[in-house]
Each structure stands twice: as C-alpha cells, then as structure tokens.
Amino acid sequence: MSLFNQGRFSGFLRPISYLIDLSIINVLGTYYLLQDKDPLIFTLFISIGWVLLSIYSKFYEVYRYTRPVNIFALILRQSILFLLFVFAFSGLYHEFKIYPRPIVYYTLLCFLLITIAKFTIYYLLQRYRVSFGGNYRKTVILGFNKKTLSLESFFNKKPEYGYSHQKTFDIKKDNISLKECFKFILDEGIDEIYCSISELSNGQIADIVDFADNNLKILKFIPDSKEIYSKRLKYEYYDYIPILTLRTIPLEDHFNMIIKRGFDIVFSSIVIVFVLSWLTPILAILIKLESKGPVFFKQSRNGFNYKEFDCYKFRSMTPNKVANLHQATRGDQRVTKVGKFIRKTSIDELPQFFNVLFGDMSVVGPRPHMVSHTNMYAKKIDKFMVRHFVKPGITGLAQTSGFRGEVETDKDIIGRVRYDIFYIENWSLLLDLKIVFQTFINAVKGEEKAY
Description:
The chain is α/β, with parallel strands linked by helices. Helices cover 52% and strands 12% of the residues. α1 (13-34) crosses α2 and α3 (68-92) runs antiparallel to α4 (100-132). The model is unreliable at 1-9 and 225-231 (pLDDT under 50). The chain crosses the membrane at residues 12-34, 40-59, 71-91, 103-125, 265-287. It is found in: Membrane.
C-alpha cells in the first residue's frame, strides 16, 4: 500500500514521529543515565518497549481532527507507562546502577522534548494545509439540518484540519436524487462522503453504502437516535461533532502498514534468494524446450486504489492472443505439460514475489483480476471494488477457503468478495501467517481448481 496518497494520509508523519521520539529517549538515556556504560542493551530494551507501549496506548493515533487536549492526554499516558518501564529496566539490570531520581528527571526531560516535537509537527502540518493547500480531503455532505450545518462550518472555518468542502446536498427540500449526488461526487473527485442519518431513508443509506464501496469512497455518518446497523461502528469527533465510520480497515493504520510491508519485504526476499535464484533457470530451460515464447508471462491487473500494474508469472500456456481475456478452464488446450505441473503446484505464481518486493502486491491479500474481468465484475458484483482498498496478494483468505482458480458462476466471485472483505476488515499478522501456511499445505496436497 502506498504511504503517500494525496489527502488520505501523509505517509511520512508517523515514521518520522517514531524516529524523532526514539532518538530523544535513546540519546538522552545514553548521556543522562548510562554515562560511560555500553548502551546496546539499554537501546534495544527501551526502543522495543517504547514501540510496544505506544501501540498499547495508541500514542501515535493522532489524526487531522484530533484536538490538542487529546494529544496532551496521550502524551501524559505514554509518559506514565514509559516511567514504569524504565523503572522495570533498572530493576532487571542492576549492573547499570540507574537510580530512581535520575529516572524521573530523565522521563520528564524526554517528554518535555517529545511534547515540543509532537505539537510542532501538529501545528506545522496545519499551517502547511492553510498556506499551501496540501494534505487535504474533498468532502460532501448529504442532508441539511443543524448537525450538517455545524459540520459544514467546521470544514469551512478550520482549513488547518485539511478538509476542502465542496457541497452540501439538501436532499429533501431540493428534491435532489442520489444519482445526481453520485455524479457530482465522481465528477469532482470527492474523497469523503458525510451523511445525516435522519435525512435519509434506510433504502437511501443502503444505496449510498453500495456506491461508496463500489467507488472506493470513504463514507461516514452523522449519528442520531435512529438505528443504523448492528455491526460495530467507530466514533470520531471533529471538534465536538460526533462522526461514525462505517468500515474500519486495520491496514490504514501506519504501524500496521509498516508491519505488513516489513513482512512482505522479508518473506519475498527469502523466496527470491533461496528459491527463485535456482528454480528460475531450471524452469526457463523446461519451458523453452516444450514451446517457443518467453519464460515469463506479463499481464495487466488492477491493484491498490484500482491502479493498474504488470503482474508476472512463469509462462504456463502456449502464446495466444486471448490470454489477457480468458482464464484457464478445465482441460484448456493452451496449457502446456510443464504449465500443467507448475499451475497445479502454484509454482507459476512465484515471480509475483518480485511484484511484492517492488511494492505492487503483498504476500497476502485479495487476488488481483485481469483488467477486463475487473471492469466486468465491478459492474455486476456488489462491493467488488472494496477489494481495492488494500494491495492485492499472491494468496488470500478467499483462495484458502475454496475460492481460487476459474470463476465458473457468480457464486464463485460473490464468495471470493465476501472472504476478501472479511480479510480487509479483520487483518492481522497472525491471519497472514495462517493464510501463508494454509496455502503451502494446499499446494502440497494439490487443489481441484488448480488447472
């Protein structure tokens, strides 16, 4: 997933914040607590502890709409946890002879500097938005009442938060259809849609949810006493205005993105160095001996945010003009003898680890489709486009749950989308590892639809 999308995130901010804070606690610790002692153990212990504590306390979950008082509360909570952590270190490593009073002074000095750094970044980013118009989100509001007017006022009067409000639709009074709203949203490149639940019927809400899912738009609700959905929703506050987020995506969290990207780089590098380095020449000879044509097969597919990229495989078919239009079917005459084996064992997919290393794909994620198929499914399968909120994967939950290979009926693609959405909304590193392990087991056993 790209860290640097215009508007949704500023991908540098969280890594830079981590780097600044870790530098502060380690530099001050080395010179203030350790003096002439070897800092290696201290640095490792304190750095790992800091990261774990920050995840627990959500120290880096500061967004464009986060109020300064909430930032200060995060700093206070992190400082108390960190103080206890440093005390624990001094108890475990008596040889460092770190005493309580220096620990308290060290912690206070650390958090004085971290507070200054955190608020400096926060206010500099606000000034950047006001002065240069960067890091902004285009918004529309559906519904017209006191709450939507308050939100519109927030967007317009506080440009430092990075919202560029385009229009508020009074659907009831102006008798505007949702189709007109949807056309405006697409034409103007709107990023986020805010809906007043009290102004919309259940049917209209369902239509808006479908539209947002199928067009990769962020959808949020302004709540009232009306029942919405039984699923868990996330509350956020813009100033003092409560906002509900319908779909939460763990991989939109920067720390999760770093964890997943790190896993992708390590895993793909291992496969490339220890498997592809010797397997590629052998397969190249076998593929070339059986049929003329290139060793690798390149195909355009849709990835994160619907962006097209070149997906690589070992060639398993004789060269043909319809390879980019038609999937392989059972008994497909285009598949070579070598191709049949490498498709059955999924070896043909291994070159995609280069796609992973280069950042177009992930080891685990929704499988990317051919561009022609993506366009077709986007029109006929509800919520198909939700799959493009994350990077596509070499393997995925849908594939390990029986939905791999040829799409024979709409039931196949509907099932695939259902599992992909579950994965997107419930991602964890453990889930990725489970899917990788299950994929390996399935490859060894062989799968019915691997043809």
